[in-house]
Amino acid sequence: MAGRRPSLLVHVVLAVVVALWTLPVVGLFVTSLRDGDAVAASGWWTALAPNETRGMTRVMGHGLPQDASQVLEGSLFPRGRAGRIIAVGVRSTAPDAFRPGQPIEIAGGRLVVEEDGRYRLTLVVPPGGGPTDGWTGNFAPGGGTRIFYTARMPAALGFDNYARVFKAEGLLRALLNSLLVAVPSTLIPTLVAAFAAYALVWMRFPGRWIMGAGIAALMAVPLQMALIPLLVLYNKAGQAIGIDPRSFIAVWLAHTGFGLPLAVHILRSAMMAVPPDIIASARLDGLREDAILFRIVLPLALPTIAAFATFQFLWTWNDLLVALVFLGPQDDRLVLTGRLLNLLGSRGGDWEILAAAGFVSMAVPLAVYLGLRKFLMRSFVLDGFAE
What we know:
Elements: H1 8-33, H2 36-41, E1 51-59, E2 69-75, E3 84-89, E4 104-106, E5 109-113, E6 118-124, E7 145-153, H3 160-167, H4 171-202, H5 208-218, H6 223-241, H7 248-272, H8 276-284, H9 289-300, H10 302-317, H11 321-327, H12 336-346, H13 351-371, H14 373-379
Antiparallel strand pairs: 1-7, 2-6, 3-7, 4-5, 5-6
């Protein structure tokens, strides 16, 4: 197989797999750029096509003296938006009873809505009707005239949903909390595991293999079984030294403890691949153990270290259970996954808001993966095939 180029079937299968994995991400991003009415009316794949939407505008007039008239003009569309009116109405029971340009007789006046959304409402007080106080037409005094419309609107994409989730939904604070959890929870176990793996592979001390076997056995311990005993231990330690046990330090230590066994196992395997002659030559040249680790072993094991760091970051970034246990559900300590869970309860019907928040939570680990992609691919090199 060496030297042979992949067949067309391999390329087709890979293209299909990539499309299946990429399509949901594209759909989520497009949905996050659309407004709520468009999301409710049509699928994301129609984002560039005009969509049909329904709306209502209330037109308010002023008090009219006896035997007077008033003309109110405006547009049914928000400023900066354009569309085409399909049907209009003045009652909720018949929102599409009239066509654009057709005069609509209402109590106290006449309404005309043009196809481009411009309306002209003429209110007239009949002779002897007496003065009015805010009465503007076919509804109660002061209530205004409601205009229902059905319009075809052009595609509109923007970043308004992202501004809403960051300003109104507290997503920025949750994003910072997730970074405060994920970054140290990735760096600490990676650094500690590098020291431990080097000691287990290249240093001689009693019980070395027993310790290595014990670390490998810890990978079989379920996280859920250790959470409550660990929380009790943290509470007792916090009371003894007078600090709050529910803090970011507690989360860092928890993720370090849960991630260390796998990290040591992976880095140990990578360091065992370093030729022993290189280590022996470095020791003969008088290099200390720390210099050998940082100058020789770690650069050679860098792809594996980057691969583990990537997976550890993804795990800690997407974690909800450990963060809720050791940080609590308070808003000032809530991580991004916890904020998304709250949004799902409070904004369950606002898919555009959920899509924007979901894409933000996806963008950071996606950027980390793309940044470390080369190292990640090198760590999976097998049988001489490289990227």
